[in-house]
Amino acid sequence: MREILDDLNRWLASGEQIALATVVWAEGSSPRPLGSRLAMTGSGQMTGSVSGGCVEGAVFEEAQEVLSGGPPKRLRYSAVDESGWEVGLACGGTIEVYVEPLVDAHRRLLAPLETEETVALATRLDGGGHLLAWPDGRLEGDRSLAPGLTALFPGPAAELRHYPEGPVLGEVEGVALSKVEGDVFLEVFTPPPTLVIVGAVHVAVPLVTLSQTLGFRVRVVDARRAFATRERFPTVDELIVAWPQEALKVGELGPQHYVVILSHDPKFDLPALQVALRSQAAYVGLIGSRTTQAKRKAALREAGFGEAELARIHGPVGLDLGGREPAEIALAILAEIVAVRARPDRPDLTGFRKPVRSRE
């Protein structure tokens, strides 16, 4: 939803009629994940995607009927036949797409998305209503959905902030939210992931650009004023001129944070590692050769860190893509972060990585 936010705001400001199509169920090799959205206007504009192009045309036609006064629709698309003439998914798999007009609940959702709040949206897939829920317990919309949210989020939404962004429960094998009649699709929207880069070195420059392209907020930390400048990092979201132990706080690094330490200097590396390893950061990466890795871990052991904590360090940082230039190393680092984020069950990425060394 966040990736189409600008278009939605622009269309609303111009008075457009808008329909939303959402992937609410998927099986097999579906091209887009649950929660992917395609938005369409009565004037023929489109933004987003539900299939990467396979069924967008058909969904657009269905959306025009909804915008003309028809009821919301729950559509199913499967793999095309061998002739390829029917509408379907060329890559195989099956998806269900829910098409509905943009309503007040969606409009109210846009503001927390803009301000990067955590919020949940429950949608009845039988043409019914919507409910918005915040971690502090606020509810807006169809209160008949509240029992289901209470069952999933005690309080009723106190645990929202701990969920990864995206759908957490859809109609899978007939399972719907408890105590709710009809199928319900629930999404949790959290602040975008944040990449924290310690060390405003050469590799950090392309790493900022690449990670922002993938939707990360980026914070660069370095005590050296000559390195940490807006001239070198014009697009970075936060540029902090300070030592890592001053800029980073254990309680402020959570599951949405990914820490990459590029400083190649124990005066920066060790304080940054100590904070990051004591935090709930989803990823801690350290640049440097295996010799450097061994030295840093030995120092951390002397500081009282155990083997389980040290095992959280991804080092030498990055997947082995074979590149040597700063931009290539940045790509390798970001590839590893994406892999860790997409496969939390394989945090060590065994078999994927070899040392990636920097020229820094």
Poorly predicted segments: 81-89, 154-159, 169-179, 353-360
Strand order of the largest sheet: 13-12-11-14-15-16
The topology string of helices and strands comes to HEEEHEEHEEEHEEEHEEHEHEHHEH
Instruction: Name the average pLDDT.
Output: 84
Highest CATH level, the class of the largest domain: Alpha Beta
What portion of residues is helical?
25-40%
Count, helices: 10
CATH superfamily of the largest domain: NAD(P)-binding Rossmann-like Domain
CATH architecture of the largest domain: 3-Layer(aba) Sandwich
Query: Biggest sheet, open or closed, and with what strands and sense?
Result: 6 strands, parallel
Which structural class should the secondary elements be placed in?
A: alpha/beta
Q: Report strand %.
A: 15-25%
Give the key terms:
single chain, 360 residues, alpha/beta, Rossmann fold, 3 domains, 6-stranded parallel sheet, 5-stranded antiparallel sheet, 10 helices, 16 strands, 28% helix, disordered C terminus
List strands and helices in order, with pairings.
Elements: H1 5-13, E1 18-27, E2 37-41, E3 46-48, H2 56-67, E4 73-77, E5 94-101, H3 104-114, E6 119-124, E7 130-133, E8 139-141, H4 146-152, E9 166-169, E10 184-189, E11 194-198, H5 204-213, E12 217-221, E13 238-240, H6 244-247, E14 257-261, H7 266-278, E15 283-286, H8 290-302, H9 307-310, E16 313-314, H10 326-342
Parallel strand pairs: 11-12, 11-14, 12-13, 14-15, 15-16
Antiparallel strand pairs: 1-2, 1-5, 2-3, 4-5, 6-7, 6-10, 7-8, 9-10
Helix pairs in contact: 5-10
